[in-house]
Amino acid sequence: MAVALVTGGTSGIGAAFSRSLAAQGYDLVLVARSVPRLEEMADEIRALGRSVEIFPADLADRDDVARVAERLEDASRPIDMLVNNAGFGVHTSLIDADVSAHDRAFEVMCRAVLVLSGAAARGMLPRGSGKIVNVSSTAGFVTMGAYSALKAWVTSFTEGLAVELRGTGIGVTALCPGWVHTEFHERAGIKASSIPNFLWLDAEQLVTACLRDVDRGRVISIPTVRYRTLIWLARHAPRSAIRAVSGSISSSRKKPVT
């Protein structure tokens, strides 16, 4: 039976991946910090007739990341798909003397992606098959502070990994969503009303489109024509224009309460 491991699999895009993969016949390993939320999601997935293993872990903790990596490499319990989804918004100033928020964001959204992707690939290589999905963001194509920089790294890393694993039977995809209806924005302190309605996406539809791209072997998944068009423009527009637009978007957001 195919098994997928999803980090941050209890809410938002991660929960949508969990439900969609269960519907496709995958058993699941769910990784998240909150045990009650893990148990709640596990109950939901088991009601669909799938097996679920819950794996409490904080991906900002390197020991926890090592435990998840060990699970990914366990040949006796193979993982067929890894979804690196865990993440959060970062709106701390790039010149703030306190870099603790940046440290945590790097650990969760860069280092953990690096370590877990490598572990998954090592576990999949002997079987000659597997899929790795790294949830990045269209923010990586613009210049909205630390979050954009982190997600630009995720996209670039995923492309490099796809090159390294070419011909092995392991597919690698970076999902680059735009604004998605989840609790992510509320947690990040983003004023959602400043985002035009036509830019919002549904998490379930986003994941369906991504998994279709995964099956097609696409390395970069940017669901919807409107976002593919916007990102094409972002890639070809003068960088000065991208910085101006990024500044305008950033200034319209609600700053987190301190």
UniProtKB/TrEMBL annotation:
The lineage's top-level taxon is Bacteria
- GO terms under cellular component: membrane
- Domain named Ketoreductase is located at 2-182
* Molecular function terms from GO: oxidoreductase activity
Q: Which InterPro entries match?
A: KR_dom, NAD(P)-bd_dom_sf, SDR_fam
Which Pfam families does the entry link to?
A: adh_short
Q: Which spans of this chain does the record mark as coiled coil?
A: none
Q: What keywords does the record list, in alphabetical order?
A: Oxidoreductase
PANTHER family per UniProt: DEHYDROGENASE/REDUCTASE SDR FAMILY MEMBER 7B, SHORT-CHAIN DEHYDROGENASE-RELATED
Tell me its family.
Belongs to the short-chain dehydrogenases/reductases (SDR) family.
Protein name per the record: Ketoreductase domain-containing protein
Q: Identify the species of origin.
A: Agreia pratensis
